[in-house]
Amino acid sequence: MPNYFKFFNSIYFSMGSFLFFQQLGKRIDLDAYVTPLRFLYLSVQVSIIALSYLLIYKIKQKNDQTVLKYVEPASQSWDGTESADQLINTTVMEYDIAEVHKTVKQSAMGILMITFLHFKFGYIQPLLVQSILGFKAFLMTKEVRIHYWGVPTTGDLRRPFRLEAPFGMVNEKKQPKTDKGSIKKAEKALKAE
C-alpha cells in the first residue's frame, strides 16, 4: 500500500501545490472576488483552530499517562549564550497537548502575517493559497495523523518528535535525545544544581 502521508507531506508536493495555486490565482481575476476570498480564508482558519481544540479534547479523552522522558538540547539565545540541556519528564498526553498548542500558535502567527500582507499591501493571492493549503498543513501534522487517522506511533511519529525543516537542514545536535546515557547525564546535572 502506498504511503499517502509521506507523499502529501513531502516538500515536493508542498512546492508543487503552492506553485499551482499561485498560477491559478494569476489566471483568475481575484480582485472581483475579494470579499468571498476573505470569508473563505477566515472560515478556513476558524475551522482549523476549532479542529485543533477538538483534537486537544480527543487527546484528553484518551488520557495516555505513559511517562515520556527525554533531553531537550541546549538552545542558543539572541546574544549567543547557550543554555544547558534540559531534562523533560512528562506524559504522552501532556506532550501531545503542548504540540497542538504550538501548532495553534503557528496558525495564529500565519493569520497575522497574511492579514498584514492583505490589508497593508493589498495582496489577494495569499488568501486563496492559504485557504487551500491551510487544511493540508493541519491534516498532515503528526498529532492529527496519530489521533484522527490512527497511524501507529513508529518511525517519524515516535515521541518526542524530531525537529523538521525544509530539505532536512536541522542539525542533529538540536534533536531531542532519548538515549539512556543522555538522560542520566541530564539527571546528574540536575542533581548537582
TrEMBL record:
Please list where the region (Disordered) is annotated: 172-193
Record's protein name? Inorganic phosphate transporter
Instruction: Identify the GO cellular component terms for this protein.
Output: endoplasmic reticulum; mitochondrion
The UniProt entry, under Pfam families, shows: Pho88
Give the residue spans that cross the bilayer.
7-25, 37-56
Per the record, the GO terms for biological process are: protein targeting to ER
Q: Which residues form the signal peptide?
A: none
Coiled coil, from the record:
none
Q: What domain of life does the native source organism fall in?
A: Eukaryota
PANTHER family cross-referenced by the UniProt entry: SRP-INDEPENDENT TARGETING PROTEIN 3 (PTHR28112:SF1)
Q: Which UniProt keywords apply?
A: Membrane, Transmembrane, Transmembrane helix
